[in-house]
Write a structure and sequence with these properties.
It contains 5 helices and 8 strands; from the N terminus they run αβββαβββαββαα. By secondary structure, the protein is α+β, with helices and mostly antiparallel strands. It has one domain. Strands 1-2-3-5-6 form a 5-stranded mixed sheet. A 3-stranded antiparallel sheet has the order 4-7-8, with no helix packed on it.
């Protein structure tokens, strides 16, 4: 996944330096003075029994991550999560500012301000042609899944909430905005 990530960086006009713990320092090829710190995370292997749908939701992919948010010295601008989409044979990327990610986790009570180790799971659901939806689904139970993720006439109850990460899916423009 790291190779795919580095290819995307070049494709979108970034040069980079890689450091230990998958910290990258990026700069645009047309403006090398501006630097962006990116923390890259690769998904862990999926345990279908624990992470998959129990209500028949058609999943495109599952990304399961274990993060340590403890190192404040790095202080990245952006978190990028990579996970494999075995249905479409590609790597999917979640590109989100670190401040927005932490805000969502704190407001949804996933972490407190002093909690620094986190397990997080994302589900990628296909809602039709080129209309994928991405949700944070850590610790989802069967009733919760049925209630919040079942697609109704007006979409899902999770649409446009802090558990909806669709706007960050493969959104490489997030890097250009920093």
């Amino acid at each position: 996944m790291k190779t795919e990530f580095e290819k995307k960086l070049k494709e979108y006009g970034f040069s980079y330096q890689w450091y230990s713990d998958d910290l990258y320092i990026l700069s645009r090829n047309d403006d090398v003075r501006r630097k962006i710190k990116v923390q890259f995370f690769s998904a862990e292997p999926i345990l279908d029994v624990l992470h998959t749908s129990h209500n028949g939701n058609k999943l495109q992919a599952i990304g399961s991550f274990k993060l340590s948010l403890m190192n404040k010295v790095k202080n990245p601008d952006i978190f990028i999560f990579a996970f494999e989409n075995t249905i479409n044979q590609c790597v999917e990327f979640i590109i989100i500012s670190s401040k927005e990610f932490i805000r969502r986790l704190i407001e949804s009570y996933r972490i407190s301000s002093d909690n620094h180790v986190l397990y997080i799971v994302f589900w990628l659901l296909a809602d039709g042609y080129n209309d994928n939806k991405l949700y944070e689904t850590t610790d989802v139970g069967i009733e919760w899944e049925w209630f919040f993720l079942s697609k109704g006439e007006n979409g899902r109850m999770l649409d446009s909430t802090d558990l909806d990460y669709t706007e960050f899916l493969n959104n490489w423009d997030k890097l250009k905005m920093i």
